[in-house]
Amino acid sequence: MSIDNLKGALPGFAKDIKLNLGSLVTTSSLSEQQLWGTLLACAVATRSPRVIAEVAAEAADHLSDEAFTAAKGAAAIMAMNNVYYRSMHLIGDETYATMPAKLRMTIIGSPGVDKVDFELWSLAVSAIGGCGRCLESHEQVLRQSGLPRDQIQEAIRIAAVVNATAAVLESEATLTAV
């Protein structure tokens, strides 16, 4: 199971996705933990069983147990936060921003890995979740921590490509089952 398996499964009409997926792991400027944690967190965020299985199998070779768990934790906490904060933003009444969320989020403060890595994974998952408020918040923390914009952009590119891979493979599985 691997990224290569996902590339091989993509149909001809998704050639751009296939090429982009391949280049994610060969041209990355992220550290190995940042790269594979981002890939895993994004795979989990897609909810695609195939993408999760393929990425998780390969990520396990590149991540410590703590980092593997933290990447899944980033996907989990952002699944909640993206819905909550996107909704509070879309309502358009800033009064909600002054109200406590009353949601436990202790993993953000103590993720078990370098905080910058966890923030990067949370940012990437937020791109998939479509939460502008979360994207802004995590990008700001990353920039204040000294992460360069090109690496922040790379995490978002990973999110886009992993999400597109899942969308294509899941839609093709559905269409061939019909």
TrEMBL record:
Identify which top EC class this enzyme belongs to. Answer: oxidoreductase
Q: Which reaction does it catalyse?
A: N(6)-[(R)-dihydrolipoyl]-L-lysyl-[lipoyl-carrier protein] + a hydroperoxide = N(6)-[(R)-lipoyl]-L-lysyl-[lipoyl-carrier protein] + an alcohol + H2O
Ranges for domain Carboxymuconolactone decarboxylase-like come to 97-170
| InterPro entries xref list | AhpD, AhpD-like, AhpD_core, CMD-like
Cite the EC number: 1.11.1.28
Catalytic site: 131 (proton donor), 134 (cysteine sulfenic acid (-soh) intermediate)
Task: Give GO terms for biological process.
Answer: cell redox homeostasis; response to oxidative stress
A molecular function (GO) term: peroxiredoxin activity
Kindly state which keywords UniProt assigns to this record, in alphabetical order: Antioxidant, Disulfide bond, Oxidoreductase, Peroxidase, Redox-active center
Positions of disulphide bridges? 131-134
Function text: Antioxidant protein with alkyl hydroperoxidase activity. Required for the reduction of the AhpC active site cysteine residues and for the regeneration of the AhpC enzyme activity.
Q: Which NCBIfam families match?
A: ahpD, ahpD_dom
**Protein family per UniProt:** Belongs to the AhpD family.
Q: How does it assemble?
A: Homotrimer.
Q: What is this protein called?
A: Alkyl hydroperoxide reductase AhpD
